[in-house]
């Protein structure tokens, strides 16, 4: 199911774009960061499973290639449009109703901190239908439950087609539990994000 007219229209009215991934998603996320225009008019949050010391490298690489402002989330940061936020290692990233982030040190979810599920679930409560979430390659099921809550709250939910994913377990879990409103090939995801 490609990016149909309804999906394109929803993309235009989306305020928050959530990108979740783990093993096999780094290159895709890097390409997305390069693609998004400076005046996107949306908030972008990336939650990627990574080792604690890995951020300095990806932040530098992402920031050097991003047309949007890009930074790692700090506690109490206010969500601003035309900014890409990256969830920090060793914390869960929460979105509060006042329009700011808070960082949580509770136990790992699916052996991961940050957990995609945790951030997706917060977005479902705060942004509801004003949100779009894309779940990419990964080697566990993190993100599937959070994506289901997003879908049930009216958000647009997209899973990368498992055949295109380097590690298919993460998008497949979201498809299998009914969380994915759309299943898109990688080129279809890029076509959608490139639509103004």
Automatic annotation (TrEMBL):
Top-rank taxon: Bacteria
Record key words, sorted: Chemotaxis, Hydrolase
CDD domains for this protein: CheB
Gene3D superfamilies in the cross-refs: Methylesterase CheB, C-terminal domain (3.40.50.180)
Residues of the active site: 22, 49, 142
Catalytic activities: [protein]-L-glutamate 5-O-methyl ester + H2O = L-glutamyl-[protein] + methanol + H(+)
Cited Pfam families: CheB_methylest (PF01339)
Residues of the CheB-type methylesterase domain: 10-196
EC number: 3.1.1.61
The keyword Membrane is annotated on this UniProt entry: no
InterPro entries cross-referenced by the UniProt entry: CheB_C, Sig_transdc_resp-reg_Me-estase
The UniProt record lists the keyword Hydrolase: yes
EC class: hydrolase
GO molecular function: protein-glutamate methylesterase activity
Protein name stated in the entry: protein-glutamate methylesterase
Lineage: Bacteria, Pseudomonadati, Bacteroidota, Sphingobacteriia, Sphingobacteriales
Native source species: Mucilaginibacter lappiensis
């Amino acid at each position: 199911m490609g990016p149909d007219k309804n999906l394109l229209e929803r993309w235009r009215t989306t305020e928050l774009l959530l990108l979740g991934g783990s093993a096999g998603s780094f290159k895709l996320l890097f390409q997305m960061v390069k693609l998004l225009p400076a005046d996107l008019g949306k908030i972008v949050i990336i939650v990627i499973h990574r080792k604690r010391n890995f951020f300095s490298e990806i932040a530098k690489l992402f920031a050097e290639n991003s047309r949007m402002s890009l930074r790692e989330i700090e506690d109490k940061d206010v969500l601003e449009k035309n900014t890409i936020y990256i969830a920090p290692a060793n914390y869960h990233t929460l979105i509060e109703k006042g329009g700011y982030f808070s960082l949580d040190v509770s136990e790992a979810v699916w052996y991961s901190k940050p957990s995609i599920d945790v951030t997706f679930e917060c977005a479902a409560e705060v942004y509801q239908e004003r949100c779009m979430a894309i779940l990419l390659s990964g080697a566990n099921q993190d993100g599937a439950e959070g994506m289901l809550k997003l879908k049930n709250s009216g958000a647009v939910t997209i899973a990368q087609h498992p055949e295109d994913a380097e590690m298919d377990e993460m998008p497949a879990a979201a498809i299998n539990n009914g969380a994915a409103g759309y299943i898109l090939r990688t080129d279809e995801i890029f076509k959608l994000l490139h639509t103004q």
